[in-house]
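Justification of computing resources. Each target in the renewal requires a structure prediction run like the one illustrated here; the chain below, 774 residues long, is used simply to show the kind of job we budget for.
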Amino acid sequence: MPTSSTRARRGIRALTATAGLALVATSTTLVSPAAHAADPVDIQILGINDFHGRVEQSLSKYDLFGGAGELAGAVNQLRGEHPDTVFAAAGDLIGASTFTSFIAQDKPTIDALNAAGLEVSAVGNHEFDKGYDDLLNRVMAPYNADTNPYGGAQWQYISANVKVKATGNPAVPESWIKDFGDVQVGFVGAVTEHLGELVSPAGIADLEVTDIVAAANKTADDLKADGADIVVLLVHEGASGTDCATMDDDPASDFGSIITGVDDNVDAIISGHTHLAYNCKFPVAGWSGRALTERPVVSAGQYGMNLNQLVFSLDPTTQDVLGVEQNLLPLVTNKDGVIAPVYPTDAGVQKIVDDAVGQAEVLGAKPLGEIAAPFKLARLADGTTVNRGGESTQGNMVAEVQRWATSSPEAGSAQLAVMNPGGLRQDLLGLNENGYPATLTYKQAATAQPFANTLVNMDMTGAQIKTMLEQQWQPEGSSRPFLKLGTSDGFTYTYEPAAPAGEHVQQMWLNGEPIRPAVTYSVTANSFLSSGGDNFAVFKEAATHSDTGKTDLQAMVDYLDTFASETPLEPSYQQHAVGVSYPSGTSVYRSRTVSFGLSSLAFSNASDVKDDTVSVSLGEVQLGEFPVDSTVPDGQFDETGVAQVQVTLPASVQPGDHTLTVTGATTGTTVAVPVTFKKAFSSVSATAKPTKAVVGKTRPTISVQVTSGGAAAHGKVVIRTGGNAYTATLKNGAAVVKLKPYGKVGRKSVTVRYLGNDSIMRSSTTLSITVVKK
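Resulting structure tokens:
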């Protein structure tokens, strides 16, 4: 053990208590030093991230993770190989959990990770799902059967870049140190700078999220100054891909800035948030000449599928790092179709899991009703990855549930409701072993919508609703470029996909009536959205905010009891939002030809009902039918289902504003497309022959040519001169008129006026003839 003077030299710092945190201190754990001083000292760090309450093992080839029992068994075995070990995490251990953990407020996850020996973790965004107070006074507070039955995390949560606004003090400890006697290992925590977009702003209203790199560097420098021999950054932010060769290409990106920006005092980075598994290392310029010149940058993926293993070897005398072994260790393997766990299961942790499963099964088996077909989330082109930028049957259904749940006068008489895509985590498939209709259980409903938000009713103007829709296109630098809101029945709108920011939304309707900018509407959203979550700041501008006290899950339970207990609930495949693009504008001229592109005519799942064609009509007149291509494009937007339309307005259509109706042949999706029929411009040219006439004798000839859009016009022209008027009918855009002799000498004006027709505007020109005596 180190002497008292050694401990004074290392100087472990304490942090100031802040905002309801009775004491925030850097923790120190003492263990025996290495057995043989002459040998290098090995320090092992095992890392996980984004566990999300996956306490149960899953051996499906589509969903392969070991569960808490397997995770604990792996840690036990690896700790046996390297006694000097820290088990650490990069956040999102709880929240967005499977039902077994969710239904007990993640207490099974807390208990399982406690038993597995987790010692320290960065806070992730999901640690704040229920707000800072919940993290501080439930999750991080000691377990108490009477006052805190669902808390008691025994590991230390840390973050250097989350501060209390009022004081600037740390909201949770910035760092944590484990003391192995002659070697100290320090940990710095940090959470994504997008925290405010990802959790309910109301829950973190008293907090400020600062720059990760600046906060991490300061804390790492302090740890090294206080005697830490190794400093590891646990950061809940991650790479967008798994290619180590390109991961640091953009130093301005969220993760590239971390890789390239943290200073020489950070010896390794264990990351998370993006749910990807990678095992990379990058050169550090300031380490030139050292035994170790590259810094490990790792992530274990998600759900306890893997463990990151870092084994540092240190000089026993100087405590200098001599090298590091880094591995990405899967907990379950799939070799030649044989799926098998890699490590033995920890019996004690598995008992916690089994007890939680038993309790959850009783609560979760309750049937809520029947569904006639699955309600699914949107998917990317790969067919499996959820696309939060796509309209979905489930998103629209949940929005309708929430409108219905708050439609009574006492709940706000909601006229429409919206649902954020990130609040939905799993398809609603029902127990469909025998096909559909299928029974939907409480467990399935809760797993699909796990955040237990309350429903908030607001008064919003039509202009604010338009702003709400515009904010689906996220600010530059956001974690996702586009987030598609689910919308309740009866609310539809069109948009221009390629329009500039703030100008996408074209028209909005509520139950067939246009949304008026100055009219106030009753709108419901969950508490996350209503406080400005996901960058939908306009909700904070609503005139009123009334928290109904109803949770999203209870609303679903009540809705299914009302509408799915006797007759299976049918998904609606009508699109609420359709893109309309006019290559030549909305005005139609002489040719009467209307051309426009349509997008977002289809949902993105293969099982969703889609239109093969759409028809276009004007009133009762059918103008054409056009094929729909429902190939799912690349990208995180809502453009599945495209069609190109070109129709000709009937000859009976008069100039003015008109509305075409696009109808899906199968889904019944209906889109109103406005067009304006405008008369085309015309141009008149005329010549006189001769231009000098003898009074009383010469009869000049006027030749007229009228064109419109480069083509010959039809109709009539009127020529006025010398007190006479001459009318002629154009033939192929031309007419020739012979004038009477003039009765007086002088310069005579000749006005040639084209009278126009149903599709061409009037125009005129003037020329002159000189009349002489002889």
